[in-house]
Design goal:
- This protein is of the alpha/beta class.
- The protein folds into 4 domains: 145 residues, Alpha-D-Glucose-1,6-Bisphosphate, Chain A, domain 3, CATH 3.40.120.10; 97 residues, Alpha-D-Glucose-1,6-Bisphosphate, subunit A, domain 3 (Alpha-D-Glucose-1,6-Bisphosphate, Chain A, domain 3, 3-Layer(aba) Sandwich), CATH 3.40.120.10; 108 residues, Alpha-D-Glucose-1,6-Bisphosphate, Chain A, domain 3 (3-Layer(aba) Sandwich); 75 residues, TATA-Binding Protein (2-Layer Sandwich), CATH 3.30.310.
- The protein has 14 helices and 18 strands.
- Helix 1 runs parallel beside helix 2, helix 5 packs across helix 6 and helix 13 runs antiparallel to helix 14.
């Protein structure tokens, strides 16, 4: 059988391997087995989910596997992914599991696992889980009937996270701010409007009617033009768009123009540096961040550390260096002094608090950096062959690097969760971006199409 864990947990089409009740059952049993072997006290696991129809199926199977191994299960229902990370830590759980495929369509689902410290599991621990599942080693290791675990529905879980999120800006009032929230018919549909309203913002929520099928469908962080249109029509100050599990966020200014993760990181880094609150004077980003962000950081004497793509890579570097701010252009923003993972709601609160403190609009704050023209293309592939073995692609890549040397760059990488290759081209001139996207795409279709 193929490997289960990808770059962000287990993910795939719901009710097809590996996102099946059989695998979820074995995963629950494997976790229970490892927790017993590791001597973890209490043995409680918290499970949350987004709004996908298949969440019911996976939740039930996981719960059965865990209780069969003597683990108690805390069910918190639909909540954002970062809420699961926070609640697992604050409620003393051994682990937190989130059922979500993040920004993917409803037909997909996934399983993300956090440790009791609120951080995603290490690669080594995931490998141990995977080995147990694939070897089917826990089939006969059920506990005695008097030690079977119990499942509890935690009714106040949302309230706990709401109060925590508000505390990250010291419950600063957001009175006077007119905000449009696009909740993507996902995990934030109930929680997010409550948080911003309780802090005094004038909130217009959209896409807050999940039906199990409409998550991310033409809305949310993947389609910021939707929230931008409502911002323009309503005269709001800012638009905020979450993805399906609310660990990502994208903004729009008053004109409906997109303000992505790079600009948000730039404005927050500069603000924190000016107040002596940027740990190590350092911002952590991935290789996908715009060169304009690097220019802006240099101008403000801020160091930049670059990781491979993925919020997990960013978080690992932040923990290693003791840094508190990092993230990705796509909207995974990590404020490590508040959260252990990317949190769209907390990120949005930090931005609104900055707007209030500075008396500035999002557009004014975002003007701290000038973006190089950039285009990212996602191309479906039949097989993820090693790129270095494909001569046509390597020829075009070498030519692009030579042409853009000193004034641009190219990044090619396979998606960790989908059968796609990502192509990023960035240059000082838009015409160069268009040319090299076309040439590289043609080469990819020829060898991987």
């Amino acid at each position: 059988m193929p490997a289960l864990f990808g770059t962000d947990g287990i993910r795939g089409q719901a009710n097809r391997y590996p996102i099946t009740p059989e695998v979820a059952l074995k995963l629950g049993k494997s976790l229970g087995h490892l927790f017993q072997a590791g001597g973890h006290g209490g043995k409680r696991v918290l499970i949350g989910k987004d709004t996908r129809l298949s969440g019911y199926m996976l939740e039930t199977a996981l719960t059965s596997g865990l209780v069969a191994m003597g683990v108690d299960v805390l069910l918190v229902g639909p909540v954002p992914t970062p809420a699961v990370a926070h609640l697992a830590k604050s409620m003393g759980a051994t682990a937190g599991i989130m059922l979500t495929a993040s920004h993917n369509p409803f037909d997909d689902n996934g399983i993300k696992i956090f440790g009791g410290d609120g951080f995603k599991l290490s690669d080594e621990f995931e490998e141990r889980i995977e080995q147990l599942i694939l070897a089917d080693q826990t089939t006969s290791e059920h506990v005695r009937s008097d030690r079977i675990g119990k499942a509890f529905r935690i009714d106040d879980a949302r309230g706990r996270y709401i109060e925590f999120a508000k505390s990250t800006i010291h419950s600063q009032h957001l009175d006077g701010l007119k905000v449009v929230l696009d909740c993507a018919n996902g995990a934030a549909y109930h929680i997010a409007p409550l948080i911003f309203r309780e802090l005094g913002a004038n909130v217009t929520p959209i896409h807050i009617e999940p039906d199990g099928y409409n998550i991310n469908n033409g809305c949310g962080a993947l389609h910021p033009e939707t929230v931008g249109k409502v911002v323009r029509e309503s005269g709001a100050d800012v638009g905020i768009a979450f993805d399906g599990d609310a660990d990502r966020v994208i903004f729009c200014d008053r004109q409906g123009e997109v303000v992505d993760g790079d600009r948000i990181l730039a404005m927050c880094a500069i603000d924190r540096m000016s107040r002596g609150r940027l740990a190590g004077g350092t911002l952590v980003v991935t290789s996908m961040s715009n060169l304009g962000l690097h220019d802006a950081m240099t101008a403000n004497a801020i160091r930049v550390e670059v990781t491979d793509v993925g919020d997990r890579q960013v978080i690992e570097r932040m923990r290693l260096g003791g840094y508190t701010l990092g993230g990705e252009k796509c909207g995974h923003l990590i404020f490590m002094d508040h959260a252990t993972t990317g949190d769209g709601i907390i990120s949005a609160l930090q931005v609104l608090a900055l707007m209030k403190r500075r008396g500035a609009t999002v557009a004014e704050l975002a003007s701290c950096m000038r973006e190089y023209p950039q285009q990212i293309s996602s191309i479906k592939v039949k097989e993820k062959k090693p790129l270095e073995t494909l001569p046509g692609i390597q020829t075009e890549l070498s030519a692009a690097n030579a042409a853009l040397q000193g004034c641009g760059r190219v990044v090619l990488r396979y998606s960790g969760t989908e059968p796609k290759i990502r192509v990023l081209v960035e240059a000082r001139e838009a015409a160069q971006v268009t040319e090299w996207i076309h040439r590289l795409t043609k080469a990819i279709h020829a060898e991987l199409g």
